[in-house]
């Protein structure tokens, strides 16, 4: 069980020597299970800024109220050696219970929710609605001059929808960042 | 009160602090009072189990706690007030983080209901110290205080040791809560891991056939404890492998041992660095491939397979890619290696090892620490040779400040045992040595404690003369006074066209008079002929001594691997330095 992994370790074995020192930058999605205590998020973010790692997106919320656990999902990019370092550095934070590299551990589902405000009239309104339908986006607010669409999907799908909405009057976008779970019966 | 009673009890937060310290076996706290910790000081006043040492600056409290911790293997404790007390502790915390020293720092904080209001002496201590602690906690409820204190000690000493901090608002100190005893404390933080037997087997196999092996050991051996030292010594003598160590690891293997190569790295010995460069099997035991050690990375020990034992998974493959990673405590790994090696027949490649030893003897014959002696001025190396000769075999602890004198001390003093050498390695903190020597002396009242200092570093915490006098601590401040920020001057000479920008120690005090002003003894020595007598006078004096040893002002510290150079391109003396460091290397520190 993932949650039983000792603090200070990562699920990624230190003995697994993939081509660590390659120069290829990869994008990885990490799930970090932490004690829901004040300051943990600051420590995680401080680790990234202090050591010069990338954060492409970060989401956090309590996921286990009884167990007092939060799940932080971080999308980051780096060479394999940097990714390994990030996991090891996260793993040694005292309040971190487990670190999972969802990208390395097998297929995972990644979803992001976005709200898009499109201000449009006439043909543009019609076209916006048509496209929203194709993308399975919902109009969660409508006025005579505007829509707010809600869309859920991979970051790429959200990007594609936003690109199409832009010429139609996209004014504002709010994105949650990625939440991710591994596929299949295994838990992270 | 009885510190061994395990009944939970009602008491104030301030009382809980003292009770928890007693429960943790603490006998000494280094600190400085202020408004936000007055309740705790009041409790300290009303008991006799814990001794409070009043330092003269909070930075010194933390370094003293570090000295105490490193010389005993126990957790050191410092207590300071909010705001400026806490910010003054930051350098010590960072120092302890870099060198993996277990300390607990307690800071006072403004009362919870004033936090965030820019109250008098309020600082975001948790925010400021987050990146320089292993963990830190703001305790907002008195009921949580005892458990947090026990957790803090546990975290400080478990896994890779390090500094932790607890921020305690004043109202939490006054309020009453239930004390949770240490015995009932269960922590989720259990970072230990056992070595992987398959990996140990692979390392042993490599050891059996290695033609040019070398052990490269670090502070992790000493942090692991006496068993690790004993196992290391057994491994070295059983295999006959040569051994070198980082600055932090000196003493784990005795300097008088036959396999000892001396320290390695930027100012390490020629034979140690050449062995690292030329080896075919490197066994890194509790060291972390620091840049002072590796030099230019792409030319670091190019022909070797490398094993790395470290309790911290993030140290593995951080800078140097290794073939045999082992995440575990050093003692566990060494025990496993020894057992496996013996079980497989205790084999080594004897013939090849003899040839390797022959090669090492040739490197040794270069006598890389040779310096030009003088009849008229005291060479710093000579001063240390005499100090070594006159104190050898004594129950001796050495601290240092940071600079040339520190490197010469590492080169010229011999360390026979662990926990006898306290120096700021990772952070390189000038001002570390004097307060550290105070912490060491308090832990070892009858021992000889010497701080080998540079005059510039020493001035950074010279106020601690007051502490040394107040507590009658006979610490010997052995200042190699070159009237220069010597290490800076050396780099300016070698890298910046001999433009000595602000690297002079101007307006130095008369150190003898300074000692006397504090009621201590001062000794001035400038003639090599007087040196032995002067050192004996220092050793025979029962109180603190400032020894002002006027040394050659422009001596350079060699060997030196210039930044950006590989191990086999060491500078061995002034003659070799011309044009040795080019623009590429100058950007490195
Ligand atoms: C707090 C701090 N400030 C600056 C430095 C940079 N520095 C390293 S060595 C050195 C000179 C030290 O001079 P001194 O203590 O006299 O020792 P010496 O090198 O002359 O033996 C300086 C300024 C440092 N290591 N620490
Ligand atoms: Mg000097």
Automatic annotation (TrEMBL), chain A:
InterPro entries to which the protein is assigned, alphabetical: Acetalactate_synth_ssu, Acetolactate_synth/TF_NikR_C, Acetolactate_synth_ssu_C, ACT-like_dom_sf, ACT_dom, AHAS_ACT, AHAS_small-like_ACT
Pathway: Amino-acid biosynthesis; L-isoleucine biosynthesis; L-isoleucine from 2-oxobutanoate: step 1/4; Amino-acid biosynthesis; L-valine biosynthesis; L-valine from pyruvate: step 1/4
Annotated GO MF terms: acetolactate synthase activity; acetolactate synthase regulator activity
Cellular component aspect of the GO annotation: cytosol
Recorded superkingdom: Bacteria
Record bears the keyword Transmembrane: no
Signal peptide: none
SUPFAM superfamilies: ACT-like
ACT domain boundaries: 29-104
Single GO biological process annotation from the record: isoleucine biosynthetic process
Catalytic activity: 2 pyruvate + H(+) = (2S)-2-acetolactate + CO2
EC code: 2.2.1.6
Keyword annotations: Amino-acid biosynthesis, Branched-chain amino acid biosynthesis, Transferase
SUBUNIT field: Dimer of large and small chains.
Role description: Catalyzes the conversion of 2 pyruvate molecules into acetolactate in the first common step of the biosynthetic pathway of the branched-amino acids such as leucine, isoleucine, and valine.
Family, per entry: Belongs to the acetolactate synthase small subunit family.
Protein name per the record: Acetolactate synthase small subunit
Gene: ilvN
């Amino acid at each position: 069980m993932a949650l039983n992994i000792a603090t200070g370790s990562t699920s990624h074995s230190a003995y697994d020597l993939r081509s660590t020192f390659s120069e290829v930058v990869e994008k990885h999605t990490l799930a970090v299970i932490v004690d829901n205590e004040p300051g943990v998020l600051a420590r995680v973010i401080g680790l990234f800024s202090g050591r010069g790692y990338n954060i492409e997106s970060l989401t956090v919320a309590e996921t286990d109220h009884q167990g007092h656990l939060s799940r932080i999902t971080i999308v980051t990019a780096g060479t394999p050696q940097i990714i390994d370092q990030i996991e090891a550095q996260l793993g040694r934070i005292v309040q971190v219970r487990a670190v999972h590299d969802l990208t390395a551990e097998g297929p995972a589902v990644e979803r992001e929710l976005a709200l898009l405000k499109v201000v449009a009239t006439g043909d543009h309104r019609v076209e916006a609605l048509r496209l929203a339908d194709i993308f399975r986006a919902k109009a969660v607010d409508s006025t005579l001059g505007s829509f707010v669409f809600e869309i859920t999907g991979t970051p790429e799908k959200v990007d594609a929808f936003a690109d199409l909405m832009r010429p139609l009057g996209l004014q504002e976008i709010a994105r949650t960042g990625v939440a991710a779970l591994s596929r299949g019966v295994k838990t992270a | 009160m009885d510190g061994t009673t395990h009944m939970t009890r009602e008491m104030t937060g301030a009382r809980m602090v003292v009770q928890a310290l007693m429960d943790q076996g603490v006998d000494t706290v280094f600190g400085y009072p202020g408004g936000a910790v007055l309740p705790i000081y009041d409790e300290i006043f009303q008991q006799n189990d814990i001794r409070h040492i009043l330092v003269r600056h909070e930075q010194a409290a933390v370094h003293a706690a570090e000295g105490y911790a490193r010389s005993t293997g126990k957790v050191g404790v410092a207590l300071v007030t909010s705001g400026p007390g806490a910010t003054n502790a930051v350098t010590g915390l960072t120092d302890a983080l870099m060198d993996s020293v277990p300390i607990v720092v307690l800071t006072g904080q403004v009362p919870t209901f004033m936090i965030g209001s820019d109250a008098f002496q309020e600082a975001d201590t948790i925010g400021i110290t987050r990146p320089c602690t292993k963990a830190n906690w703001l305790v907002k409820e008195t009921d949580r205080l005892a458990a947090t204190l026990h957790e803090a000690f546990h975290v400080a000493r478990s896994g890779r040791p390090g500094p932790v901090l607890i921020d305690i608002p004043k109202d939490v100190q006054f309020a009453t809560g239930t004390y949770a005893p240490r015995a009932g404390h269960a922590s989720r933080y259990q970072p230990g891991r056992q070595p992987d037997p398959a990996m140990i087997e692979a390392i042993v196999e490599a050891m059996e056939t290695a033609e040019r092996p070398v052990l490269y050991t670090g502070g992790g051996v000493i942090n692991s404890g006496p068993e690790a030292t004993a196992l290391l010594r057994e491994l070295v003598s059983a295999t006959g492998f040569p051994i070198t160590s980082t600055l932090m690891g000196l003493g784990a293997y005795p300097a008088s041992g036959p396999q000892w190569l001396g320290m390695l790295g930027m100012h390490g010995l020629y034979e140690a660095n050449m062995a690292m460069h030329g080896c075919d099997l490197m066994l890194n035991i509790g060291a972390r491939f620091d840049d002072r050690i590796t030099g230019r990375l792409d030319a670091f020990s190019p022909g070797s397979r490398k094993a790395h034992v470290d309790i911290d998974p993030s140290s593995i493959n951080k800078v140097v890619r290794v073939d045999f990673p082992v995440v575990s405590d050093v003692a566990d790994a060494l025990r496993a290696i020894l057992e496996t090696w013996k079980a497989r027949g205790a084999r080594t490649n004897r013939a090849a090892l003899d040839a390797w030893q022959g090669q090492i003897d040739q490197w040794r014959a270069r006598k890389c620490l040779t310096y030009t002696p003088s009849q008229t001025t005291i060479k710093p190396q000579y001063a240390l040779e005499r100090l070594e000769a006159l104190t050898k075999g004594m129950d001796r602890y050495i601290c240092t400040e940071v600079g040339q004198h520190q490197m010469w001390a590492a080169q010229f003093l011999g360390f026979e045992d662990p926990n006898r050498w306290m120096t700021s390695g990772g952070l390189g903190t000038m001002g570390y040595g004097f307060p550290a020597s105070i912490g060491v002396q308090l832990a070892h009242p009858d021992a000889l404690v010497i701080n080998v200092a540079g005059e510039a570093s020493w001035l950074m915490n010279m106020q601690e003369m007051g502490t040394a006098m107040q507590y009658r601590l006979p610490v010997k401040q052995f200042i190699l006074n070159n009237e220069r920020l010597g290490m800076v001057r050396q780099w300016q000479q070698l890298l910046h066209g001999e433009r000595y920008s602000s690297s002079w120690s101007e307006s130095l005090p008369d150190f003898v008079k300074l000692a006397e002003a504090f009621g201590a003894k001062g000794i001035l020595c400038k003639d090599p002929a007087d040196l032995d007598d002067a050192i004996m006078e220092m050793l025979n004096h029962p109180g603190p001594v400032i020894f002002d040893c006027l040394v050659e002002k422009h001596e350079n510290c060699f060997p030196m691997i210039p930044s950006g150079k590989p191990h086999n391109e060491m500078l061995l003396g002034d003659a070799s330095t011309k044009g040795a460091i080019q623009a590429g290397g100058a950007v490195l520190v």
